[in-house]
Structure formats: C-alpha cells, structure tokens
Specification:
By secondary structure, the chain is an alpha/beta fold. An 11-stranded mixed sheet has the order 3-2-1-4-11-10-5-6-9-7-8, sandwiched between helices. Strand 1, helix 3 and strand 2 form a beta-alpha-beta unit.
C-alpha cells in the first residue's frame, strides 16, 4: 500500500520543464530554420511549433524539404518555405530576412555550423553587433539542483580578456532574460588561487575586478575557482573559500573552448545531462542544434531563445525616459 502511494507521486518538474512553461506564456517567435533537410532538424522545428513556442519559416531547397517531409510523414502544409538552392544560400537568405524584419530567431538545420556562422559574421551583410559573439550551453544535470550555464564551449577557441568580458556579459544577459534573476558566476581554472604559472587565474582575477568597476554588470562574479569548489558547497568549505559564488555557481566560465567542450560533454555523456545551446551577441539569438540532441533539448534551446526575443520585444516597446 505504501509502495503504491509512493509510485503515484509525480516527480518534480525538471529545469527544462520550468523553462518550457515560461516560454509557453509569451508569444511565439518567428524563427528562420536554416536548411532543415533531414528528419531531425525538420521534426524538431515542427514539434516545437506544435507546442506553441515558435512559428517556423523554413529556409532552404523547397523540393528537398518537401521530400524529407513526405518521407517521414511530417505535415508542412501550413508552414512557410523560402526557397534557397543550397546550404550557404539558405544561410545568406536567412540573414537577409532578419535584416528585413521577417524573423526574430535563427535556428540551425542540417547544415554545418561554420556555414551558418559565416553568414552571421560576414563583415558586410552579417548580424554582428559591438558585442563578441559567443555560445552558452544550458545544461540540466539530473543530480544538480540548478541548470548550469557553461560558456564558451563552441565558438571562441582561445578568447582573450576582452572577449571573455563579452562572453560573460552574454551569459549573464541570457540568464536574466529567461527569468532566472541575477546569476552567480564562477570563472573556472585548475586552482582557486592566483598564480603566474596558470594564466587563466590571472585573467579570472582581472575579470572580477572589471565587474567591480562596472565593466561587467548584472551578475555576481568570483574566480579563479576550481570546478569542485565552484559547484559544491562542501568542497568550497574544505578549501576555506568565503564567497557568495563558491559552491553555488550558476554560470561557469571556462578558460577556453577545449576545456568547455570537454566539461559539457562529460556532463552529457557521464552524468546523463540534457544540454540546450544558444549563440548570443548577434542581432538575434541563434539556436544551435545537433542531430544527437533529444527533442527536449531542442525545445529547451528554442524556449530560451524565445524568452530572449520576448524580453527584447518588451524592452523595445518601453519609451525612452
């Protein structure tokens, strides 16, 4: 009798469930899905649309997209398609449509990431802003109480101090725009003390001072911190670290792309974490998906992007004082 009562109790909603619930409360965003020419990218866009999170506009070879839809019994009769001959043409067309105000988000289909990002970063026609473009993983680790934002593990290979300032600001802005408040930001290294032998510790200290001087805003920074004492309260206590961030970090800033990519993939494959991902710093958020992504991960990426788009929408509607 006791066992049946326990089994009837529903598990608490995951971090992604809460994110999706927030996204469903705001208007869906017009999303330019670039080159959705395989089942996973097309299905992901359509299923997210069915949840009321995005309004997809498919950009790519219409004949091929229609063939994929027929083969996998996907209904695209009510979905707009903008014809483009090949992957690079689709990326360029999608960027053009953003400039024309036809889309609030970009979503990667089955083209390579570098094909999409070349169009986004083009000096003449791209979507660059004054901010450095960077990537954020939003990772839902089942055994950890909060989602972890990991940056940058996909775009900037060896960022310098100025690039890291933008990388951190992009992540803080995302955290805030999705409705999570002001984040605790840990700047990771191998150790928690500053030493000339490990350059990332010096950069971490400089970034914290930049935050003190208002060059990074909206979050509480600390670093250098090793991974254990960034996310585990007991590990921080053992090391005698007195900090509002240590042991409770929500954003993890890695020294370089290699470290970030390894960290994210370790969590995904060993800790069975789900990962969503966004590229920030361009004129619109960019949803980067992988064929290995689960449906929930794809939807979470879209949800985060839609919440960003809605926050921008509302900010634009507020008249300047």
């Amino acid at each position: 009798m006791v066992m049946s009562q326990v089994s009837a109790v529903e598990p608490p909603p995951s971090k992604y469930d809460r994110l999706l619930a927030r996204a469903k409360k705001v208007p869906p965003a017009a999303t330019l899905v670039v080159y959705p020419c395989d089942e996973s990218s097309l299905r992901g866009a359509l299923e997210t649309a069915e949840e009321g999170i995005i309004v997809p506009i498919l950009v790519g070879p219409a004949v091929r997209i229609s063939a994929v839809a027929r083969e996998h019994r996907l209904d695209i009769d009510q979905i707009d398609i903008v014809d483009a001959d090949h992957a690079e043409a689709a990326a360029a067309k999608a960027v053009q449509l953003v400039h024309e105000g036809k889309g609030e988000l970009l979503m990667k289909g089955s083209l390579h990431t570098d094909e999409l990002m070349r169009a986004v970063t083009s000096s003449g026609t791209g979507l660059r802003t004054s901010r450095r473009i960077s990537h954020v993983f939003v990772v839902d680790v089942p055994t950890h109480p909060e989602a972890l934002f990991i940056t940058d593990a996909a775009i900037n290979i060896f960022p310098d101090l100025e690039a890291k300032r933008d990388i951190i600001q992009n992540a803080i802005d995302l955290f805030t725009l999705v409705g999570l408040g002001a984040p605790r930001v840990a700047i990771l290294s191998a150790v928690e003390t500053v030493t000339t032998k490990i350059p990332s510790t010096i950069e971490a200290a400089a970034l914290c001072k930049m935050a003190d001087r208002g060059q990074i805003t909206g979050g509480l920074l600390d670093g250098p911190l090793a991974f254990d004492n960034a996310i585990d309260v007991e590990a921080a206590k053992i090391k005698g670290i007195k900090s509002q961030v240590a042991g409770r970090a929500q954003i993890l800033v890695v020294p370089d792309l290699e470290a970030g990519n390894m960290l994210a993939k370790n969590l995904i494959f060993l800790a069975k974490a789900d990962s969503a991902g966004l590229v920030l710093g361009a004129r619109v958020p960019i949803i980067l998906t992988s064929r290995a992504d689960s449906v929930r991960s794809r939807m979470a990426s879209c949800a985060a992007a839609v919440l960003c788009a809605d926050a921008r929408r509302r900010a634009a509607a507020i008249p300047a004082v």
